[in-house]
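thoughts on my protein:
***
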Amino acid sequence: MAAWSATCILIVLSTSNPVYKGLVLVAALLAVGAAAGLRKMRPLVFGVTLLAAFATLLNFVSAHLGSSVLFSLPSEVPALGGPYTLEALVFGAVGGLTIAAVIVAASPFSLALGSHDVIDSLPTVLSRTGAAIAASVNLVPVVAATFVQVSEAQRLRGWRPRGPRSWAEIVVPVVLTSVEGSLQLAESMEARAYGTGPRTVAGSLHMTRGDWMVVGASSLAGAAFIAARVAGWAPDWYPYPTLSFPTVDPRSLLSCLLLLVPVTAWRSRG
């Protein structure tokens, strides 16, 4: 999974072409859905949609560039005055697409793998780093689950949202529960003598044929896409000053399609 996630992020961050970014996002959604299941993906999809929408809106409001003016506000309006262009809206949407693709590509570490799997896959010298990474990766789904539990409990007690101030009745218990969970994790690690000796594992992980297939396809996809970038076959795309359709290279397109290999490999493994 690490090789596949790294390749997805490499392709997304190495180009400004929205076609390749969109293909990576679609491949990531399908692969993560095959590995973790659609039910676990619902909070992820909701979160990345909000982030992408915020990035789109932020660029649309702040970047008053481009020739295709949709509407204008008086320049006397602080921070908001000026022309609002189609180019700024599209460029903001591409930025949101980048954020969504990167987050979804990294999500298998928290949705499809246990924290112990992340630690066991690292070398012994990185065991402490692995523990910190595993705890960090596990933080978001734990907080999300706590938020759902607290909000449902409060609604059963008659709570209803009445504005921003009323959400303190949800946020405060969630924060306190998260802090309590962190303290319990620290106490559990201390009770198990964490850090007093070399790391031990219950069993070793073995690469399956499907895992090697994913690693090979990911390596080939990353190398082919970077080669296309170096050779100039996959040029950058920029919407300013006038919006235009991005150029699509078939070889780079095929590199992105190789990222769909985990859809079959991870589903058959599960």
Residues 1-114+205-270 form one domain.
